[in-house]
Design a protein that fits this description.
The chain is mainly alpha-helical. It contains 15 helices and no strands. It folds into two domains: 92 residues, Type II secretion system (T2SS), domain F (Receptor-associated Protein); 248 residues, Receptor-associated Protein (Up-down Bundle). This is Type II secretion system F family protein.
Length: 374
């Protein structure tokens, strides 16, 4: 009734008012991702730099946003800002999309009166971080996909194709070669109990993920092991160093005190081993140690990064020096991923060839054996 009265005051006489039905599977629109937040930050920084008031900037960005979930998020933040809340306080109410680092940087920008500059820095930072994440995912996704396809093809051959050959072999009336017999036995296992392998694998992956989330010691063990994996380890290490340098550079340039900056930087490294190391560095800096000395004591940071940090501290340009270090390690990640792809491609081809080719040879061995006897 209230809605009908409001519409009549606007000169609209509705015949019927119905509540909009909710979508069957949650709220409409795709999930809000890191890229959406990065684009939003860039747009907001551009609006503020152009002199457009904050609330009006939210209105313009919201109208141009197609994703309903993102539009609702922007509308909610705009409403909170209109009611008198600071932008940082409004963002803090949405921790799923704006982490502690983001909120702290915005709060520092508001305090210093340079919110537009800080938002532009955050946008640059998030774009760099997403680029690094993309490179790391590329390094891990390609070999994992090819191996998964090879396993699927092998399972298909064992379950569907090899039984057809087995029916043919039974008519030979001769003993099968040992290699062929082994493959046939494996085919029997896959047909009868192959589902156990699938359930065990899926269950193991889920258990591993949950255990890593709930047990910090186990997560630390996994992340430390991952850093020692040949070829993959250097990519993860350089990625963590790039994210550390880039995040610390951005927070320090925004005016966040070094100890506070290190506290928020720790979680941005993407690796719990480096997260613990950064927290140790923060504790040492808090009691008066120099940053470069505290980093050296962890034994995890390379000499080049420590020396560049030392130079930045002495020259009073730590943020600029760390930005250069971040750019260096980002380029290192790019080069390592490209080299990794070139190195893994022939290895994967050989692996697939050996697995699939071995099955084919096993099936044709009895035919070759019969041909030689005849």
């Amino acid at each position: 009734m209230f809605i009908k009265a409001e519409l009549r005051q606007m000169g609209i006489i509705p015949s019927r008012v119905r509540k909009k039905p909710k979508p069957l599977f949650g709220s409409a629109g795709k999930r809000i991702g890191a890229k959406d937040i990065s684009v939003f930050t860039r747009q907001l920084a551009t609006m503020l730099t152009s002199g457009i008031p904050l609330v009006q900037s939210f209105t313009i960005i919201g109208q141009a946003t197609e994703n309903p979930r993102m539009k609702k998020l922007i509308t909610d933040i705009r409403g909170e800002v209109e009611s008198g809340s600071a932008l940082s306080e409004s963002l803090k109410k949405h921790p799923l999309y704006f982490d502690e680092l983001y909120v702290n940087l915005v709060e520092a920008g508001e305090s210093a009166g340079v919110l537009d500059e800080v938002l532009a820095s955050i946008a640059d930072y998030k774009e760099r971080i997403e680029s690094i994440k993309g490179k790391v995912k590329k390094a891990l996704f390609y070999p994992a996909t090819v191996v998964a396809v090879a396993i699927a093809v092998t399972a298909l051959l064992l379950i569907v194709v090899i039984p057809q050959f087995e029916d043919l072999f039974q008519g030979f009336g001769a003993d099968l070669p040992a290699f062929t017999r082994m493959v046939v036995d494996l085919s029997h296992f896959m047909q009868q109990r192959g589902w156990l392998l699938l359930v065990g694998f899926v269950g193991g992956v889920i258990a591993l993920i949950q255990l890593k989330k709930r047990n910090k010691k186990f997560a630390h063990f996994l992340d430390r092991i991952s850093l020692k994996i040949p070829v993959i380890g250097p990519v993860l290490e350089k990625s963590a160093l790039a994210r550390f340098a880039s995040t610390l550079s951005t927070t320090f340039a925004a005016g966040v005190p070094l100890v506070d900056a290190l506290g928020t930087v720790a979680g941005a490294t993407g690796n719990i081993v480096y997260e613990d190391a950064v927290m140790q560095v923060r504790d040492d800096v808090a009691i008066g140690h120099q940053l470069q000395l505290a980093m050296q004591q962890t034994g995890l940071f390379p000499p080049m990064l420590i020396q560049m940090t030392s130079i930045g501290e002495e020259a009073g340009s730590l943020d600029a020096m760390l930005s250069k270090v971040a750019a260096f390690y980002e380029e290192e990640v790019n080069n390592t991923v490209d080299a990794l792809s070139s190195l893994l491609e022939p290895i994967i081809i050989v692996f697939v060839g050996v697995v699939v080719g071995g099955l084919v040879v096993a099936m044709y061995l009895p035919i070759f054996q019969m041909a030689s006897v005849m």
